[in-house]
What we know:
The protein has 155 residues and is an all-alpha fold. The chain contains four helices and no strands.
Amino acid sequence: MSLQALSFGTLGVLFSLIFIGGYVSSSGVGLTCPEWPLCPHGFIPAPNFVIEYIHRTFAASTAALVIITMAFTLKSKNAPKQMKLTSVIAAGAVIGQVTLGGVVIVERLHSLLVTGHLALGLVLFSMVLMTAVHSWKMREKDRALEARRQQPSSP
Ligand code: HEM
């Protein structure tokens, strides 16, 4: 899988997670799963906390994708410095966001913490978006170089 597909896939999953988070908040189901890190039946979802369960499952998948994207970006020889930086900030933000999500539960949806959760979500989204844009630019650059290489040299 290319770094471009990975970073845009991560962006798509994160966007869905933010959408689900907004739904959790606006429909008032944030404390239907009152435990942390797992819900009452462990990994088994139940109808009374299915939305919160989906939010946590998407959060875990997003965290894994953001960290994998960072690892591949840092390993890439072609990735620009800015892309490496945004991917590292995104990984830090996702770890902070998952931790803060847990604190939001433990502190019973304290309004400042929920606001912080939304704000950090925006920072995370911006960093993942910038990483994806850099990966797109990187691919365009690689393609242009490849096309130039394949052009027959003039006599
Ligand atoms: C990458 C990880 C995460 C992202 C991007 C994220 C994003 C969001 C967003 C955007 C909201 C809506 C906030 C609002 O409308 O004010 C939200 C709500 C919520 N999130 Fe997360 N979240 C993440 C992880 C977690 C985790 C791990 C938990 C832990 C259990 C969690 C618990 C909650 C709860 C309880 C709410 C509802 C708060 C309320 O009722 O007002 N989140 N999340």
